[in-house]
């Protein structure tokens, strides 16, 4: 199942993405959360780049992902500050024993922002719209296990045979095979419910005039300048959101945004704390309660293309794994990450705490290269995106490789051009993945396999830039994803552990680090710290934060 | 008036021809850029069928001349195509950025003239050390990289003194620093051109006559010489219009100014080709119009220019 | 030529600028011997333990950059990139511009017409935008950057050369040698090119200034000279986000760019005056 959200280079370091562990307790009381939240007030959030779109079936960047979540709702959602699934527009759901049929009951009294009642027909319309190739939805493939998907994707029909609405408040999905990730899929943006009449009214421009059923209502969007949302008074969850109004300001350089935050003009840094000011901000005691750090659910890595010589040789791939000084890489980004030794980030089920990974050992690396027939090293090319700090990191890696005799030329290109090179067979020997912001759309280990390491991704235009394809592991992955029942979860995590250990034995990647995310907010903006580092909403879950000075 | 009308007609016809060439080259951009549009629209999870369907929807599976016809046909209807990334009409995106770009352009031209005209006059009037000093300053203005000037102005006037907002778009206070950054370079050119023109004009007989009449030097320069020297410099404004329409990318990046330069820069990073094509085309049209204006103004104010 | 030098020598400003220019060129040539450190070596003690760059003073005279490399060494080597691109881009632009300008100006007729309409077309393209798009998307190298700049810059040279050639071609002695049966390449080489030399020299010098600024702008956007090759523009690009905490990383290369561009502009301007004393009053 495809699973990774890409954002091209907008991210830099400040905004690595997913945070929090599955173990995070929901909304633990904390210092910052001690006051009782009051409804009211407005806040200003800054971003460097304007959003591409707010259409949930199209938007797929780290910066619009969470804003779309606050305007729209889906059948499922996550409990605030956690990665725990909970019904949202649905009141309840049942799964058939064979894991092939999902039945959702909608809440009563649901309303779109335009005042119209939301029914099961809208759910059906929205998902069929996402699958319809005319919509050009980048996440359409997520719905591939729904019966009838192939016919809709091939434009033979517009109606999914596996999606039925027996009455106004019931939605029934029939799948072609059990899919352990299906409830997560009902919680991703592509499955959010949109009103047909508004979509038809605005056509392709719906993304600039969004109407949903989420916590906030769209007010206005001055392209390149600002976006204004206001509280949805008819929101189906009582008592939230707290804020009356959120203003997103665009075109704000992160450094400038930080200065404005200090002046009190800004409440939240959408792009996080800029790397250059990181030490200064975090070492100032006055800021102690204002910045939030979170473990991340992303891994940054170097791909070693197994279809390009000499990376077809396992010994060479192992040698490269031992040649890169990951601590040094982390030093040059001011320690804003943790060393990674495997594919999965620590907080995901399936992460192997006992896995040792490849040690940093240039001497051993040289020996391995000699064994592989390259005693004097070789020349190759390392691709990277061209926005700071990625070229700098690529240069640090380049120096490490030179240390064992590998001469790597750096090609730093626009993100889209790197992606194109990665998806072209035999073109990019090595790619530094940083800045292409691999972000899990939902917290599940399968997200880190199918597209970026499975055979399905090792095709022209695919995202498996190592071109690694192991049929046995693919089979094991399919099997793991068929474990649907609640009591199979531990076994499923174990299955994934085995799969990823298998991947690391073949060393198609050098996992380098798991980024940490650092966000800063004004003193008047309150909320549980877990809201600021949670994996689902970046940089924050807007529904549950509040203004201290609200009346 | 007859040769003038003929001249105008010729310039106009030439402009139309140039635009046609611009459209053709812009059309080629989509083939120059390495990313397959259909794959790009479809995203990482698309099946080959979806890609094929998008290719069909976008007429990418048609022969070249058909695609060209679609493109030109669209342009005639004011349709600049649809963004890969945003799925929005490019025309609307460009349109929404135009006010910011025009505002910055006006601000920059204002500062160019504000800096260039007094310096040019002073240099011409006070030959010698002052003249030399001003000309070095003018050259320094032309030679200073815009992004360094921008960063320094930002640091000093917005950060240290806090007189101006640090970036963004809004009232006059937001406009001053980016406009000044652009104006410093342009001001250097104006100062040099105006000075050269003044020096030449001051050699003319009628200036000698004015001097001989006993008019003060200030009056001679400001009233008699300037009137004749300033017009050719003003014609340069026409050329500036074109430059600023496509060339403010760096300054817009430094100041987070939401103009079409910023739009283009973001599109280039994403290889969102339709936006790149749209901005290129709009900027080219502006340049053609700007040049046309300069061509039209020049013969009106300077009869020495041959009408070709 | 000798007269020109005499006139040039009279201006102390021009001499000063020429000295700076020569110094910069020598610095670029002698870079391997002048630099205290390897410009691409990332020193462990070149960063604080938290990963911050070192300020000027101490072992690293002008401080270090964000990878712990010696800024002074990078600046000296950066002069190479800037000058190589400046010279290469200009030679290409001037050669192409001169060739097309002369051809169009001498031949006139439909060929000349087409060539000049083509330059009109190129003039109408937003140059920086076009260069940015090309540089961002094509495989990066010093020479690609130089060629992109040349592609944008040849147009003005072509137009000026065209105008000059047209007027030269009408002169009597050229008419005469044509009547004597001289072939046009010979006429161009013997009679036209020598007269164009001053213009081309002036344009080459002024063009270096434009090109250096152009390269710096591209590198500032992260699409000019690619790391680890240092150029003044990309040193600034790598450091902009650190501008408020490490301003020396922007300040020193900024000064370097200004110095080079300024001295080229002054020298070029002085050369123009020296070659053609009557042109003092003319615009550009």
Taking all Cα atoms into account, the compactness measure Rg of chain B is: 24 Å
Low-confidence stretches of chain B: none
Distance between the termini of chain A: 47 Å
Class by alpha and beta content of chain A:
alpha+beta
pLDDT averaged residue by residue of chain A: 86
Largest interface summary: A-B, 52 and 46 residues
Average of pLDDT of chain B: 81
Q: What is Rg of chain A?
A: 23 Å
- Counting copies of identical and different chains, the oligomeric state is heterotrimer
By DSSP (H or I, 4+ residues per run), the number of helices of chain A equals 16
Which secondary structure elements does this structure contain, and how are they paired or packed?
The complex is a heterotrimer of chains A (551), B (308) and C (284).
Chain A: E1 4-5, E2 42-46, H1 62-71, E3 76-78, E4 85-87, E5 90-95, E6 101-106, H2 120-131, H3 149-153, E7 163-164, E8 170-174, H4 182-185, H5 196-202, E9 216-222, E10 226-231, E11 245-249, H6 254-263, E12 268-269, H7 275-283, E13 291-294, E14 300-304, H8 314-323, H9 326-332, E15 337-339, H10 362-371, E16 379-385, H11 390-403, E17 407-413, H12 415-422, E18 430-432, E19 439-440, H13 450-453, H14 471-481, H15 489-506, E20 509-515, E21 517-520, E22 525-526, H16 529-533, E23 546-547
Parallel strand pairs in A: 2-11, 2-12, 16-17, 16-18
Antiparallel strand pairs in A: 1-19, 3-4, 5-6, 6-8, 7-8, 9-10, 10-11, 13-21, 14-18, 14-20, 15-20, 22-23
Helix pairs in contact in A: 8-10, 14-15
Chain B: H1 2-32, H2 37-42, H3 48-57, H4 64-76, H5 90-125, H6 129-143, H7 146-160, H8 172-202, H9 205-212, H10 217-247, H11 249-255, H12 260-270, H13 273-301
Chain C: H1 2-9, H2 12-29, H3 31-34, H4 71-107, H5 109-123, H6 127-137, H7 142-169, H8 172-179, H9 184-220, H10 232-239, H11 248-275
